[in-house]
Amino acid sequence: MISAFAADAPPRLLHEVVAEVMFTAGHATDFDEALELADPLLGEIRALVIEYQADSERRGLTWQFELYGSNDEYLRGASAADPTLSEAERQTRARRAHARTIRTTLTSLTAPEFEIACTGILRIMGCADPHTSSQGNDGGIDFYGRLELEGRLDNFSTYGGFDRRVGLWLIGQAKHYPTRNIQTAHIRELVGSVELARTKGAIHTWPGLHLRPFDAVIQVFFTTGDFSSGSNKLIDNSGLVAMNGDQLATFLADAGLGLDSTNTTFTESKFRMDLGL
After folding, report:
1. Does residue 68 contact residue 11 with C-beta atoms inside 8 Å?
2. 122, 143, 211, 222: least surrounded by Cβ within 10 Å?
3. In which domain, by residue range, is 71 found?
């Protein structure tokens, strides 16, 4: 029940929420007994909620619920209105309240549409002219684009024009796997394809991808599903950047895709238009 706590749920006493879970699960014969059983567990539950929120933030995910109150005595939905929050934080939470709907919309796309959507994500990231590879003949690379860093470096200097000569390629693979996990073979395919493109050893050519031996490259892997434990380990060890369906949905919610100017209404037609579909 706690894991299904709605993002817009108002504050409720944590003690009562835990007791309700225990009573529903049959660990107590009445609610008063459930309250007594819940009491010694509150410290552990608070620690778990804090870790859940911290882990979600590290992974770029939306957390559904959080502790609230001067002594963390309440549990509430993470998108609940709170006048103590900054306006920027309230708007972020308003956008993230649509993350689940965005995830469902991503899943409803066809595989070719998802590849185009991933190319649209590169455009959102700042790539001026991202490309989608030809269907059925992509050579292991589904989308790619170059991100120029002019004006993006914190230590910008008017001398030397260093930032005008610096850019990096974002090269990726898209897998529309709503119910399947990405395996290590998928990760290796992308890594190998990029290396062949760099060394000019690939039979395939990608229009607009002019990768030189020392060009900076970030390899990205986007999926509507999730990654196996083995592929996650390979991703961490290789430095590849990956997003599963929930992470993509959070990213797109943060970018406001499909949302109106007040961040209250999501429409699929606007979402598709924002992604170039």
Report:
1. yes
2. 211
3. 12-80
Residue 8 has pLDDT above 80, yes or no: no
b/e string for 249-267 if b means 16 or more Cβ within 10 A?
A: bbbbbeebbbbeeebeebe
Residue 4 belongs to a domain:
no
The burial class, CB within 10 Å (0-12 / 13-18 / 19+), for 151 is exposed
**pLDDT tens, residue by residue, 37-94:** 999 999 999 999 999 888 888 888 878 888 888 889 999 888 767 778 888 888 888 8
pLDDT value at residue 168: 92
Residues linked to residue 27 through DSSP beta bridges, in sequence order: none
Q: Give the whole-angstrom CA distance, residue 62 versus residue 7.
A: 9
Q: What letters, b where the CB count within 10 A reaches 16 and e where it falls short, cover 205-221? A: ebeebebeeeeebebbb
Tokens linked to 11: 């504050």
Distance CA 253, CA 209 (A): 29
Q: Please say whether the beta carbons of 77 and 9 come within 8 A.
A: yes
Residues 6+ apart with CB under 8 A from 78: 7, 62, 63, 64, 65, 66, 93, 96
Number of domains the chain contains: 2
Is the model's pLDDT at 151 over the cut of 80?
A: no
Instruction: Round to whole Å and give the CA distance between 80 and 7.
Output: 7
Phi then psi for 7, rounded to 5 degrees? -60, -25
Cα separation, 72 vs 25, in Å, equals 24
